Amino acid sequence: xxxxxxxxxxxxxxxxxxxxxxxxxxxxxxxxxxxxxxxxxxxxxxxxxxxxxxxxxxxxxxxxxxxxxxxxxxxxxxxxxxxxxxxxxxxxxxxxxxxxxxxxxxxxxxxxxxxxxxxxxxxxxxxxxxxxxxxxxxxxxxxxxxxxxxxxxxxxxxxxxxxxxxxxxxxxxxxxxxxxxxxxxxxxxxxxxxxxxxxxxxxx
Length: 204
Ligand SMILES: C[S@@+](CC[C@H](N)C(=O)[O-])C[C@H]1O[C@@H](n2cnc3c(N)ncnc32)[C@H](O)[C@@H]1O
Prior knowledge:
Blueprint: H1 5-8, H2 27-30, H3 39-49, E1 57-61, H4 67-72, E2 78-83, H5 86-94, E3 100-104, H6 112-115, E4 120-124, H7 135-148, E5 149-158, H8 159-163, H9 176-181, E6 188-192, E7 197-202
């Protein structure tokens, strides 16, 4: 099986098993409580807005200002969220949205499997590889996502968020073709929903 060259150039394993992911101690990158929703997040939301959301369970990875939950919680069964910023968690909790639960939890972590109890129809992650530290943890994240997705569940992401990486590291700037290459490694199909919003769907 050939491995996509994009992933070949990335560090195999960072060795930070207890603290995976980049910038977790840098509020400028991980605390978006006072920032506007990013353009990429907004584009994904436009796609979500057009879906039939009744009874859908959604995991929002990187909750930022929590406006996603404020916009959609009333239309879905539940929104769970992940953040590595205490400030983002405090803001989320202060909203007291009954079907919105935010976990202080890294998407790359092993604790994902013991913390996450729900199963999801949609995972929204506009910064799919932006905080990736190594190949092991990037693929661990995808394993985590696929583990908690329902049959026919989908991960939604956006090209602009995939272009943005911590330290502007070009190795983790993924293209649509890099996502398509994942079809050879995971039971997924990758498609363009719009010119910039992509879906990674689980093959049931
Ligand atoms: C640039 S902000 C984007 C916020 C929001 N999604 C938006 O686009 O408006 C990045 C978000 O990713 C979260 N994040 C960074 N590393 C993470 C990790 N390892 N696991 C989960 N969330 C992470 C941060 O806490 C923050 O909410």
